[in-house]
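Key result, reporting period 2: structure in, sequence out.
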C-alpha cells in the first residue's frame, strides 16, 4: 500500500492520522506542489495529494481514502455504527472541508498567506466552535472519529497561518492540546510539520 501526500497537505495529514490510529502498514511518498511526479500524474487525473494505491486499486480524495481505511480495517472504528451518526459525521467533515480546509489547502499549495477575509472567517468559526468543547471531548461527542482527524491538522497549522486564538477559545485550545498529545498524532507528523511548532 502506498500513500502519496504533500508535506503540508492537510488532507494527507488526516489520512496519515488514520493510518496510525489503525496501525496500517503503508509506504509514504511525499510530493511537493512544485514537483512533477510522473507516477502520481498517471494515477490521479488531478495530480493531487493524497492519492492511495492498494494493489490494483487507486483512490484519491481524502474522504474516500479514509472511509476505505475505516471499512477495510474496522478496528478501531472511526465512524459511528448507526446510519444517523454516520450521516452527521459525513456532514461535519463536509463542512470542515468546504468552510476551512479547502481555502487553507489552496493557500498552503500556493505558498501564500491567507487573505484577511478568509483568515477572519476561520478565526470567527473556530471561536464559535470552542463552546462545543465545553460539553464534548471530541468533534462528534465522546468518541474520537474521522472528524477529529481533519480538525486536528488544521489546528496544528494555525501558527503557520498566523492565526492566534483568544482566551475565549480556551476549550478549543485544550481540545487541540489533547489531540496533539495523542501518540498517533505525534507519529503522523513529518519533519516539515514538526517545524510549525518547533519553537
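The corresponding designed sequence is given below.
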Amino acid at each position: 500500500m502506498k500513500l502519496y501526500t504533500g508535506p503540508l497537505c492537510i488532507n494527507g495529514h488526516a489520512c496519515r492520522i488514520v493510518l496510525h490510529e489503525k496501525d496500517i502498514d503503508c509506504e509514504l511518498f511525499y510530493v511537493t506542489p512544485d514537483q512533477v511526479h510522473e507516477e502520481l500524474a498517471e494515477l490521479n487525473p488531478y495530480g493531487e495529494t493524497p492519492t492511495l494505491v492498494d494493489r490494483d486499486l487507486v483512490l484519491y480524495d481524502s474522504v474516500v481514502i479514509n472511509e476505505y481505511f475505516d471499512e477495510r480495517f474496522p478496528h478501531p472504528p472511526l465512524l459511528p455504527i448507526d446510519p444517523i451518526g454516520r450521516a452527521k459525521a459525513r456532514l461535519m467533515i463536509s463542512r470542515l472541508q468546504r468552510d476551512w480546509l479547502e481555502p487553507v489547502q489552496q493557500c498552503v499549495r500556493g505558498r501564500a498567506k491567507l487573505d484577511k477575509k478568509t483568515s477572519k472567517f476561520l478565526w470567527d468559526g473556530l471561536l464559535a466552535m470552542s463552546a462545543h468543547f465545553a460539553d464534548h471531548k471530541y468533534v462528534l461527542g465522546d468518541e474520537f472519529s474521522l472528524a477529529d482527524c481533519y480538525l486536528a491538522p488544521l489546528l496544528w497549522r494555525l501558527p503557520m497561518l498566523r492565526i492566534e486564538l483568544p482566551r475565549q477559545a480556551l476549550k478549543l485550545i485544550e481540545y487541540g492540546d489533547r489531540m496533539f498529545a495523542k501518540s498517533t498524532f505525534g507519529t503522523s507528523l513529518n519533519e516539515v510539520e514538526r517545524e510549525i511548532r518547533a519553537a
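Residues 83-196 form a domain with the Glutathione S-transferase Yfyf (Class Pi); Chain A, domain 2 fold (CATH 1.20.1050.10). The mean pLDDT is 92. This case is discussed further under Risks and Mitigation.
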